[in-house]
Design goal:
The protein has 476 residues and is of the alpha+beta class. It has 4 domains: 121 residues, 2-Layer Sandwich (Beta-Lactamase); 112 residues, PAS domain (Beta-Lactamase, 2-Layer Sandwich); 77 residues; 144 residues, Histidine kinase-like ATPase, C-terminal domain (Heat Shock Protein 90, 2-Layer Sandwich). Helices cover 42% and strands 26% of the residues. The strands form 4 sheets. A 5-stranded antiparallel β-sheet has the order 2-1-5-4-3, with helices on both faces. Helix 11 packs across helix 15 and helix 12 packs parallel to helix 13. The protein is elongated. The chain binds adenosine-5'-triphosphate (ATP) and magnesium ion (MG). The site of magnesium ion (MG) has 4 residues, from helix 13.
Amino acid sequence: MGASFSLHLLGSSRRMQQFMQQLPNAVFLVNQEGRIVEANDRLLHVTGYQHEELVSKPFSVVLPYRGSMEQLYRELLKKEAETEQPVEVEWRDKQGKSGKTPAMIMVQQADQPLYMVHLFQLTKEIDYTLSQRFLQKLTNETSLGVVILNEQAKIVEISHMACKLLGIERPQVMNRHIDQVFAGIPEEHRLIKRELLEGVKLHNVATTWTNNKQRYELIVDANTLQDEAGKIVGAYVLFKDITNLRSFEQKIERNERLAMIGQIAAGTAHEIRNPLTSIKGFLQMFLQSFSDNGMMRERSYTEIMLTEINRINSLVSEFLLLSKPRDVQYSLVDLNIIFEEIMPIVESQALLHGIEVKFASRSKLPMVVGDNELLKQVFINICKNGIEAMGGAGTLHISHHIAPEGDKVSIDIRDTGPGIPVYIIDKIFDPFFTTKEEGTGLGLSVCQKIIHDIGGQIRVSSKGYGTTFHILLPYL
Ligand SMILES: Nc1ncnc2c1ncn2[C@@H]1O[C@H](COP(=O)(O)OP(=O)(O)OP(=O)(O)O)[C@@H](O)[C@H]1O
Ligand SMILES: [Mg+2]
């Protein structure tokens, strides 16, 4: 192991400085008196000193060694000869924090000895430039996908999020060609395409990606990387997961749609109702005279017409409910009384469908502030949905609990039906969304409006089997 070198080969001290800067290690020069005469930037960086703070200081500032530099040099030489490896020395930084690192000292024995101290392991850390640190941060970032390709379309960098999203493991794909990595996916469906290297640029392109049943909404940016001469030497792809943002947008869209439907409904509902009232009046007159004249067939037709008109009427009423920013009649409502009044209706419907009803909360419910009639409508609607979902057999459970937030009571209406498939669960509160032949799809949207208006919330949980609607209400 060559432990000495000839300094005159290096020439002037400026050349020496340059030489030291090029070295990958933290390096400093110590003179015969044991004082530091030069230090490279890497040493300054790891120790936290300024150049002028180190120069002419005793070397023990960096290497807390009691003896002289000559003694340290000899000690290391000896150990090195035994182990045939650089020997560890203790070092410390400006803050006084100390550590160990393998070191080698080279000496130039001219008229005055000069020692060049190399601290090896202090290289790696400072080898990171700020941009490398930035890249490191990006690759660990959970919401940002980063993929860097070299000119042969091999992956040279990939972030954790990108791996998760693409369903791959970082060590398995690093330095591998994208055709190998994405062999199972046709080129046109890939997120990382070869054509990127041909200069295809993407900027804020919205796309979706599904992996492991999880659907991601992404915004993608991609571009090539060029060298100084403008030659394409690689490409990068960045994508941001905006799934949450998208569902927020969809909520806004839905609300806007609701508002629009509301306006149309409000405008037309009255116009429909008025003529209906007169039609109904005349039909009732007909009914009377058909009865009086024994015209039973005509009478029964008229009865059917009246029932149908009542149906239209109630539909229009629901419309009006949805649309008008109704002044809610806030009054103190006893939920026990509400349920006492609706249970016969619910139970008779259940009986009709062969369903059992279990009402665990009888007489245990708190007082809430709301509108009596509207609240009844909500509970009936949701119970009716549950009963309809079970079709023929099952149990409808009605219970309640205090919500974890503490300020709301949750009325829980659970059925043992088939559950709500994930792909429609987002839509069930939309007006006119129905999966029933006879349904209007207004039930839940009306319920939601009523409950929102009194500061409550409806939550649904449905995991494959059975569905629970939680109606959360501020209580007293
Ligand atoms: N308990 C439930 N189990 C399974 N699916 C349900 C349940 N409740 C609601 N749904 C689904 O939500 C849809 C919308 O319900 P909503 O009450 O708004 O309308 P509807 O019941 O179809 O019609 P309407 O209430 O106007 O008669 C239903 O068609 C059904 O697909
Ligand atoms: Mg319904």
